[in-house]
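Page 42, continued from yesterday. The earlier attempt failed because a stray header line got pasted into the input along with the sequence. Redoing it now with the clean sequence only.
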Amino acid sequence: MNIKIRKEVTSDVADIKALTTAAFLNAPHTSHTEQFIVDALRNSGNLTVSLVAEANGQIIGHVAVSPVSISDGSQGWYGLGPISVAPEHQGVGIGSQLMRQALATLRELGAFGCVLVGEPKYYSRFGFKAEPNLVLPNVPPEYFQAISFGARVPSGFVSYHESFSVQG
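This time it went through. Structure tokens are written below.
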């Protein structure tokens, strides 16, 4: 299967919403609001990176990246997620391709680092690790991970954009 990773375009919005809904339908540890979060980030102008994985003209994967706030005032940090792959295409590396391209895009934009909430065993392969001085309230510390693109990792509480509070 030939996969193309590209930036989203306006005509992709409905397909991204359907894909994200399907990808998280049977996922554990979800509030099933991921598709609404992506829409809210886009509508608020806070969807910094939005990439799709396309195969045979069909969108089969998507990753969203948005700015985060850190209580120490650090700038240039982003949160990755949600990341979605169509259920019938999971487990074949599409998510990994989206991750690599999203991180490369952040580096090109001059970002200082990226955080995410996810499975440590999976995300460590991309360089993410729990940073004891970065805290996302109400999330077990081992599941809140960061990757720094520079020498300094900030210290403080991390807040995602208010779009992550949307309920639908």
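Notes: The two ends are 34 Å apart (CA to CA).
Reminder to self: strip header lines before submitting.
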